[in-house]
Structures are given as C-alpha cells and as structure tokens.
Amino acid sequence: MTSSARHVLVVQHQDDCPPAMVGDWLVEAGCVLDVRRPYAGDALPDDLSGHDTFVVLGGSMGANDDADHPWLAPTKDLVRDAVERRTPTLGICLGHQLVAVALGGAAARNPRGQQLGLLAMGWTDDAGHDDLMGDLLDTNVAVQWNDDIVTDVPAGTVVLARTPEGEIQAARFAPSIWGVQLHPEVDDRILKEWADEDPNRYAEGVIDEVLARIAAAREDLVAGWRPLARAFASLP
Question: Distance (Å, rounded) from C-alpha 30 to C-alpha 167?
C-alpha cells in the first residue's frame, strides 16, 4: 500500500444490506472502503493483495446458495486467501456463515426458528483475551435478525459469544478471521426495510415492538459496537 490509510474490501450482497454504521465507523477510524456489489455486476478481486482488511456483509441468501448467487464461491475463495495472507477479516451474519463454511464448517437453518430483535450477549471467557473483541465485554446486547446459524465450526475455532440458547454469536475462526452472527451495522430504519419485504411473516404488532425497542436502544448499541469497528481498523 502506498497510502497510510487502511484499504478495506467490503462484499455487499444486496442493496438493503449496506455497510451502514460499521462502514461509517471504519471511515471515522481512517479506513478507505472498497465496496463491491457483485449482484449488480461488480467484479471481485482475485485475491486480497490490494487490500489491508476484508469485510463480508449479510444478506437474505444462504451460505450454501452458490448456484443461485455465483459470487458466493469467489467470496469464500477470498476468505481462504485471507487466512493464507493473515488479512484481518470480519464476517457479519451471512458473512459469518460464509467464513465458517469456507473454512470447513457448516451453516443451516436454526431449528429454534428466527433470531429476531435485541439479544443478550453471552461472552465466553476466551473473549476477554481476543485481539478484536477483548474490549467489548461491557457490550450487553446486540441486534440479531437471522434464520440461519453456524452449526459446525472449522477446526481451531474459538467461540467468543453465545446466545442464551447456546447458538454462536461471535467467533474467531482462524488467526485474524472473525465472524459475528449479530448485526452491529444496522438500525431500526434498515430493519424496517427488511420487515417490509416479508409483511405476512409476522403477527400484527410484532415488528413494531421489535423496531421500537431497537430504536430506543440506539445509543447503547452505537456505544457498544463502534469499538468493534475501531478495533478492527487498528489490527496489525
């Protein structure tokens, strides 16, 4: 790199799943974002030699839906390249699942059903020693909005947080490779777009209540998760 700014490759999977607040926080921390939208025709790089860090965002497709979304396979190739190069990588929701699958794990529908709204963070003892999440132990809640979860982890994975029911919320899948099932990047406005795409799924009033709780918690969510982006931007 010729610039002192850290160049972040961001893979975005659909229009309504942007980097949003995480993107803003990375820019605040001095990063330059290279957002690629392969569903809209953007090419993905062959490798990560032109980038310092790598972020894979969420989306409504599954981590195994390569046939219907042909950029997923090259995204997984980039994850494996990140492992080889030790390029700091963060997968968010679908991105978390893609990272796990790329490295030999598995993702599937959560048999307990959709995780929706504000969930308590269940930090593990290992989280306190983690380079990325070690300073987040006072972050008590996160937004989750997902049907799928990581069901099997790659060899060497360190689980950093679990939901009250035991599903993985955060993990370090390899040195410098992390995933979070939660959504640190979204607010109630983005989530309303997601809910509006499937208006018949929820009983009357359910989404209004969920969005109201998330809107009310915005200050705490920003204070809790902005440090994740800052820590990610400062990783060696």
Answer: 33
